[in-house]
Every structure is written in structure tokens, then in C-alpha cells.
Design brief:
330 residues; alpha/beta; Aminopeptidase; OB fold (Dihydrolipoamide Acetyltransferase, E2P); 2 domains; four-stranded antiparallel sheet; 6 helices
Length: 330
């Protein structure tokens, strides 16, 4: 199936009961060659919601790409209600270079919704929002850890918002972190447009992890089924996600060779040694301890760090006083 070159996403041009592959123009490089974003659109045979799924907003975070491919492989258009819009690679220049950021080394997920006139990354972000995202009614943004780190399968969502809280639980991740939308993020820019959005962190960068990919695919299908867009499937729900009220990274105070002790999803206690730092002679020069009890959401895996290097992404488990939705849909 060939892809159609277009200036912007137009859902009215996609016939009911069909899948279209589009290349949407967002940018031009220094040779004035067009930079086009791949978009897949599945239009059902009856009206319904417009759900968007995006991946590789950071160019090296690719676990979400096969999630989208497999989602479309399994869609039954005759049973689909509404429209699924998927962007397997948002950050095309970063993806081609194998890097996190845009070609000018700016982070697109700190620049949303961009600017109509600005530097290259701002214009790219603005056109992505205007030409694609504005057409959506719900958004799931797929990410992974960045280079030198490992992640659990976790979701960031506003757990005080019933819609996004439900979306988060439908993913059935290992961990959910209460994280209201922030300025500059795709999730925050979507929220400003009235589009409920969550971020799904699918493991580690620059690789495919089959189990996390499978679980993420099941989570998105659960969301589509909950919206009555596809038939429900009998799928074992798995364990309840651990809910965190907040999270933060711990950083090194000195430089050296880092050894992080706990694994992702591991519970730790206040005062527990989480990592050691040694000098080039092998002597321990510092220990990083947990400031409070919590769970390891992500961790550094690159042993060579300077002062201010990331160590552990530590989540603080929510208690009953936070007022969050405590259970997902059955």
C-alpha cells in the first residue's frame, strides 16, 4: 500500500472501512527537501471517537513503533467504530539520526505547542499540533527511557482527572505516576486543546522489548474497547498497577563509576543504599541513599557519570489521602 503525500491530516478524505497511509509535510531540510511524518489512519464503518497514538517523539524511543504496527495489523475495519490515527515516528530527523532530540538538538517534548514562526524545532512542533493533533479527541503518547537508563512499563497521567485516570488504568502498566500535564509537553499541549492524554513509558530506548510491546498493545486495545470502538476481548487483567503520588530523580553529587543496586519496580526503604560511586582506583567515594520509601520506576544503566548524573527515578507510593481513583475498570 503506497503512502499519499499531503499537507495536513484530513479525516474526511479517508473513506469509511479503509486504512490510509499518509506522509504529512512538516518541515524542509537545508536542501529544501520535504520532511514528512508518516501517519496511519483507520476509519471504521460507523461514527465514533478519534483516538490518536503517537510514538518516537524522541527519536531513539522506538518501542512504541511496533505497538502501532501490530495495532493496525489486528484492526477489523468492519467492526471498528470511529477512527484510529497513529503516528509511528513523530520526530523524523531524530529518528533518522538515532538521537533523542530534533536536528537542532532541541527536545520537542519541551516545546509544544511550538510557534508558527520560530526556530526549526518550534515550527516543527507547531505544524505537528496544527496539522495532525488538532484532529484528535483522545491521545496516547508512547515513550521509553532515554539513553543510559532503563524504565519499567509505567504511565504518567493526571489521576485527579477521571478520564485520564481511567485511561491510565486501562493500560495495565506496572506503575502509574500521578503527573498533571506540563507546559511544553505533547500531553500538556493536547490537554490545552481539550484532548485527554496520557504518556506510556515502554521500557528502554533504541531497542524492541517484546513483552513490553505486547502489554502496551493490549492496553491500547483495552482503551479502544472501553470507548466501544472495537469488540471486547477476554484478556486476563493482570495485577493492579502500583499508584505513585509523585516521583523524582536522584542525582550524583560527585563523578565516577556508578553502580545502581535495585532493579526497576523494586521497593526500597528510607535510608537504603541505592547506588555506590567509585573513583578510577576502585575506591568507594560516595553512596546514594533513598530519602524516603518508594519504588524504582527507572534507573541509570550507564556506569560512567559526572556530578549531577541520574541515578534512580524514585516513586512515592500514594496513600488513601490523595483522592486518586484507586481502581481501574474491570
Amino acid at each position: 500500500m503506497s503512502a499519499q503525500l499531503v499537507e495536513r491530516l484530513d479525516l474526511t478524505a479517508v473513506p469509511e472501512g479503509s486504512i490510509r497511509r499518509l506522509l504529512v509535510l512538516l518541515h524542509r531540510d537545508a536542501l529544501d527537501r520535504p520532511v514528512r511524518v508518516p501517519v496511519m489512519v483507520a476509519a471504521g464503518t460507523s461514527p465514533g471517537p478519534v483516538v490518536g497514538v503517537t510514538a518516537a517523539l524522541h527519536g531513539n524511543e522506538i518501542n512504541g513503533v511496533p505497538v502501532i504496527h501490530r495495532l493496525f495489523e489486528k484492526l477489523d475495519l468492519q467492526k471498528l467504530r470511529g477512527t484510529v490515527v497513529a503516528v509511528p515516528v513523530v520526530n523524523v530527523p531524530g529518528f533518522l539520526a538515532g538521537t533523542r532530540n530534533f536536528r537542532d538538538d532541541r527536545d520537542l517534548n519541551h516545546l509544544m505547542p511550538g510557534k508558527a514562526e520560530g526556530h526549526a524545532a518550534e515550527v516543527y512542533a507547531h505544524r505537528f499540533m496544527e496539522r495532525i493533533v488538532r484532529q484528535l479527541e483522545v491521545l496516547v503518547d508512547l515513550h521509553t527511557a532515554s539513553f543510559g537508563r532503563a524504565n519499567s512499563l509505567y504511565v504518567r497521567a493526571d489521576m485527579l482527572n477521571p478520564t485520564t485516570a481511567r485511561m491510565a488504568y486501562l493500560q495495565r502498566p506496572q506503575i502509574i505516576v500521578h503527573n498533571p500535564p506540563h507546559d511544553g509537553t505533547l500531553r500538556g499541549a493536547a490537554d490545552d486543546l481539550g484532548i485527554p492524554a496520557i504518556t506510556v513509558e515502554i521500557g528502554n530506548p533504541h531497542r524492541f522489548q517484546p513483552e513490553y510491546i505486547r502489554r502496551s498493545l493490549v492496553g491500547i486495545r483495552r482503551l479502544l474497547a472501553d470507548l466501544k470502538m472495537v469488540p471486547r476481548r477476554a484478556v486476563a487483567p493482570g495485577p493492579e498497577p502500583l499508584l505513585c503520588a509523585s516521583s523524582h530523580w536522584l542525582f550524583t553529587r560527585r563523578g565516577g563509576l556508578l553502580r545502581v543496586l535495585p532493579q526497576v519496580t523494586e521497593h526500597v526503604e528510607a535510608g537504603q543504599v541505592l547506588a555506590t560511586l567509585t573513583d578510577p582506583f576502585g575506591d568507594v567515594i560516595d553512596e546514594i541513599v533513598a530519602p524516603h520509601a518508594g519504588v524504582v520506576i527507572g534507573r541509570a544503566i550507564d556506569p560512567v557519570v559526572g556530578t549531577g548524573g541520574r541515578v534512580v527515578h524514585l516513586g512515592q507510593v500514594a496513600d488513601d489521602d490523595h483522592g486518586f481513583l484507586r481502581r481501574g475498570p474491570e
